[in-house]
Amino acid sequence: MVHFIGKDNIVFHCIMFPVMLKAHGEYILPDNVPANEFLNLENDKISTSRNWAVWLHEYLEEFPGKEDVLRYVLTANAPEAKDNDFTWKDFQKRNNNELVAVLGNFVNRTLVLTHKYFQGICPEAILLSEEDKDVLAQIEEIKKRVEKSMEAFRIREALVEAMGLARLGNKYLAETEPWKLFKEDEARVRTILNVSLQITANLSILLEPFLPHSMETIRGFLNIKAQTWGAIGNISLVPTGHLINKPSLLFDKIEDKEVEFQINKLLATKKANMAKDAELSPAKPAVSYDDFTKLDIRIATILEAEKIPKTKKLVKLKLDTGIDIRTVVSGIAEHFDPSTLPGKKISLLANLESRKIRGVESQGMVLLAEDATGKLVFVTPEEDMINGAEVK
């Protein structure tokens, strides 16, 4: 039993929930609780209530057939060790530079060359060179590294290791250059393409957990059935003489205009959120003039400010009201650094009944303005006023 969670649920899943399961007595406890950090979207916290999200149904409509691209980018960008950020530019870059240029390029080259030179029939590996043998031996080594990462729940690392096989195949083709050898050494080209087809078939198993739709497509190209994980390392997955199907592009490039559309959609969302945040709260019921005149609001200067220990919000302020020196406790610690407050002119409700807050007698209330986002700003005079000046 493994619980995959976000870091904000660590306490519940590692203490409270196991205690509940243990107390019940009929459920097993989790063997491991891999906790990821947070994933943000374009440098802002993902929020469904603010519509700051990539909605799956919209993605599937706007990027048809690209389910695996999103799976790939989310896995490659997984916040396993620290908070991370999903951006549409990175989405485009990973698709174009990794899926298209590495994986898609290798598979397409292998299949197209097989059709070009051998009518789509898997050629025989006539004589494996030491280079060929070394490349094929690395398939099993890559498999072991992927397994080690997966067993440690480092999925992101496992994907990098699995993509290493595609990079290996690309490097192998680039170095052997079968398109230059065919007229001079057809037997060598047969071996190179046989090796490349075996790598492709092994990729269809190795990358299955990460890119299931694309690997099914590769198997369709190769005209082979799905294999179990244990088959990885087999260098005869595509038999000699086997007919493969004509390929098409495994992945398409994502153009700038597609990314700009997504970014503009998010910018429109941000603009709408800002307009919503700017909406003011409704007016309170009317009060009589006599009630208002009971308020004694004065200009005061902050002399000292310090955070009250063992609290998150409370600051103890020492004020010069022009009438006296007094102490006021204010819940502003999350908005202001106390060390920056001495010398600041403020407005004070001076005749509020005093009361003790965390053992400190508070004699009044500091007036602040608050916007819809919760930001606080002191109500201060535009010009320098003497302490004790009345606000009318």
Determine the strand fraction and express it as a percent band: 5-15%
Tally of DSSP helical segments:
11
| CATH architecture assignment name of the domain at 69-231 | Orthogonal Bundle
The first-to-last residue Cα distance is 67 Å
Q: Number of DSSP strands?
A: 14
Describe the strand arrangement of the main beta sheet, using strand numbers: 8-7-6-9-12
> What general form does the structure show?
elongated
CATH C-level name of the domain at 69-231: Mainly Alpha
User: How does the major sheet shape up?
Assistant: 5 strands, antiparallel
Which stretches are poorly predicted, pLDDT < 50 over at least 5 residues? none
Helix content: 40-55%
Mean pLDDT: 93
How would you describe this structure to a colleague?
The protein contains eleven helices and 14 strands. The model has no long low-confidence stretch (mean pLDDT 93). The chain has helices spanning 10-24, 56-62, 67-76, 88-118, 130-151, 155-176, 178-181, 186-206, 212-222, 256-277, 289-293; strands at residues 5-6, 35-36, 39-41, 44-45, 84-86, 297-307, 315-320, 325-330, 345-349, 355-357, 360-362, 365-366, 368-370, 376-378. A hairpin with a 2-residue loop joins strand 3 and strand 4. The strands form five sheets. It has a five-stranded antiparallel β-sheet with strand order 8-7-6-9-12, with no helix packed on it. A three-stranded mixed β-sheet has the order 4-3-5. The chain has 392 residues and is α+β, with helices and mostly antiparallel strands. Among the domains are: 69-231, Isoleucyl-tRNA Synthetase, Domain 1, CATH 1.10.730; 289-378, OB fold (Dihydrolipoamide Acetyltransferase, E2P) (Beta Barrel), CATH 2.40.50.
